[in-house]
Amino acid sequence: MSYFKTAILLAGLTGLFMGVGYLIGGATGATIALVIAAATNIFAYWNSDRMVLSMYGAHEVDQRTAPDLFNLVAELAGRAGLPMPRVFLMDEPQPNAFATGRNPQNAAVAVTTGLVQSVSREELAGVIAHELAHIKNHDTLLMTITATIAGAVSMLAQFGMFFGGNRDNGPGIIGSIAMMILAPLGAMLVQMAISRTREYAADDLGARICGQPMWLASALAKIANAAHVVPNVEAERNPATAHMFIINPLSGQGMDNLFTTHPSTENRIAALQQLAAELGAQGGTFSNARANYPGRGPWGRTSTSRGPWG
């Protein structure tokens, strides 16, 4: 169902993009819009991962420089049936993480130093499994495409202002103003809806990969709490990348609504609780996770539940 909903939303976003092009220049405008979309998506396909990793100052680590983290990613990737992704660390105090890459063969998982230092090994496993689920579901490419089309819609809407006074070839001044406001807003809403849909799917698959839904639930509660008090300066400078992170790095969200890039943490935890009950997992509780932040050092707190590491 989530794939069907995502397909419908993506089709709607593409239709909006073509519609703006048509309003500006008729059939020719729609064709030009299609060419622009193709060019920007080709560029994003090959370069988006390097751009975002560079933006956040992420540096690659390996078994020599970060053996615990690297081995954890390797074991979970094996459980997920994925090639080993590249592993990156961001020197950022806010605990958070994201995945990027055009396909599973060219993927990367990036985590912040704040995440490694503030969660248990089990919680970190839940977060990494969630990011690997995005890779396995090809969400990293999907979100790049949606972000690119949404940006192109905004660009075309602004460009349409040049045709506002031409009643023969353009939408008119009133139509141009409305298009400049409503088209980017509509694109943003669709982009956010796609992002929320994919987060739920990644939570579900990620919990199955690590084998303990409550590990991820505990991590989500802890990260969401930190987002309220620990600013992510780079994310504030580049809010268009907020949808990539496991938790919105800009602010905590209290409810699902049209203007959030992520589902509410409470709803995600509730879904993971239900999954844990279905799987018969005994992953412990997370009720004290908010109070425990920032917690002890890397993997200083262990869980009594059993998983891939016994």
Task: Lay out the secondary structure.
Elements: H1 2-55, E1 59-61, H2 67-80, E2 86-90, E3 97-101, E4 107-112, H3 113-118, H4 121-136, H5 139-159, H6 172-210, H7 213-229, H8 233-237, H9 265-279, H10 289-292
Parallel strand pairs: 2-4
Antiparallel strand pairs: 1-2, 3-4
Description:
By secondary structure, this protein is an alpha+beta fold. 62% of the residues lie in helices and 6% in strands. Strands 1-2-4-3 form a 4-stranded mixed sheet, sandwiched between helices. Helix 5 runs antiparallel to helix 6. The longest helix has 54 residues. It is globular and about 55 Å long. The two termini are 34 Å apart.
Features:
4 strands; disordered C terminus; four-stranded mixed β-sheet; 10 helices; globular; alpha+beta; 310 residues
Sheet/helix structural class: alpha+beta
| Unreliable spans | 252-258, 281-310
Q: How do the strands of the widest beta sheet line up side by side?
A: 1-2-4-3
Number of helices: 10
The separation of the N and C termini measures: 34 Å
What would a concise description of this structure say?
Strands 1-2-4-3 form a 4-stranded mixed sheet, with helices on both faces. A hairpin with a 5-residue loop joins strand 3 (97-101) and strand 4 (107-112).
